[in-house]
Structure formats: structure tokens, C-alpha cells
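Memo to structure team: turn this sequence into C-alpha cells by end of day. - J.P.
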Amino acid sequence: MFGANHVAARVAFDHGLDVATAVAVRGLATAGVVALLVWRARVPLRLDKRQVRAMAGIGVLVALQSVALYGAVARLPVALALLVFNTFPLWTALAARVFYGERPSRAVLAAMPVILAGLALALDVSGAAAGLGAAAHWSRIGAGVALALGGAAAFGVVLALTQHEVAALDGRLRTTLTMALVGVLALVATLALGGPRWPQAAAGWWGLAALTLLYGTGITTLFTLLPRLGVVGNSPLLNVEPVAALLLAWALLGQRVAPMQVLGALVVVGAVMTLGLRRAPARR
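Reply from structure team:
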């Protein structure tokens, strides 16, 4: 669902939709639907002061992550933007270390150079696969890569905060509060930039509808399940997303990457999947 959401977003962006408008519509629509679920299920709305502060921080970070990642998708092939973003398990481990004193496992430390090597292949850092020099290649992809890395860092902190600060809250309530704040912040940004800017063709409207539905469903599932699984160990499971996006972008958008880049993507995904599927050591 996340992979298809970003393919739909690229369609919408190519037909006139701007990033801030997309994030505003997606956030407010998701918040409205999940709020109905919270109301029907009579989920308690009680939060202590620490949870209120954590949810405010999570909302701001998800807003930044959403704008950064959609900005990357608008500038890079979808699969490459998501591949860079899906380094977020490393950022999650770093955030858990910095904020909560959790030491990364040996497996995480061993996987880091493998992931970076695969990422270098996937991004074609030398520009050889693109037929360009390194300078020309990075002048074309640099902004998109920076945005994807920024989104990954923000999302890594979000997952660490979710696990340690608000895991006790119902996942639907977390989603409602997060998406409401994201939607409001994005709406303010949209209006400040003179928007909204809507799609200029039917395909763009279909893309906007699809990205809203797919993201809303996916993020609700994510925030509901990950606290039960443990984000540091299991967030790498989400790295199947770039593979799905690679296939969808090839089939629907005609986006292709060089064989060397596909190999790099498989190295990255394989490394983080290995992290996610490893058996956690027994606690004493």
C-alpha cells in the first residue's frame, strides 16, 4: 500500500498537484475517517502530559517526513526515492540510542556498511549507469536524495517515540491525532504558498484519491502493529516497499533503472530484511 501510494502520488504530481496540497488532503481525510472509528469504538481519549508532548512531536515530524518524501518522489524515480527513505531502521536505532540509551545490536552495526554499499550502487554515485559524470548526475538527483534522507531521519525518530512514549495509546487514536496535526500544518503551508494547487487532469485526481486511500490505510496499520512488534527490530520489514514500488513504477509509469541499480536495491533490501527477520536475543 505504501509503495502504491507513492506511485499514485507521482501520477498526481505529474498532472499539477503540489506536495503541500497532497499532504493536507491525505492527512485531513485520514484523520476524519479514523476519528469515526475511534468514536464508534469508544476509544478512551485520555492522554497524560508526556503523551501529549510526544504526540505533538510525532505530528510535526510526520508532517516534515511527508513533505520531504513526496518531494523526493517528485524528483527521483519512485523506487530510488523509497530505497533511500527506507534506511529509516538505521535512524530508528540511532534515535533509540540517543534518546533512550539503547545500544544497537552487532547485527545492525554489521549491516550498516552493507546497506551503504548497496545504496551507492542503487544511486549510481559515479553517474556511470546514467551516462553522466558524477557532478552532472548528482546535480540532477542530489536534492531528491537529500529530501529522502531527511524524511528517513524524521520517520526513524517517529518510530522510536511511538515505541517508547505512546505505545500504550490505541493505534487508531495515535493515527487520528498524528494525521490531524499533519493535515493542519500542511494546510497552513499550502495557504501560505498561495495554494492549493489541484491536479489539471483526470489522472491527477485519480492519483490524489488513490494516494489518500492507500496511505490512510497503510499508516493506520503501521501505527497499530509496530508498537506490538517492537519498532527497532521489526521496522526493517517495511523495506519490502521499494521492491513493490520498483515493480509498480515499471508497470504503471514506465520508470526503469539499470541492472546495477537493481542489484544495489536488492543488497539494501536484503540487508534490512535480514535485520528484521533475525531472532531477538533472549533478555535476562
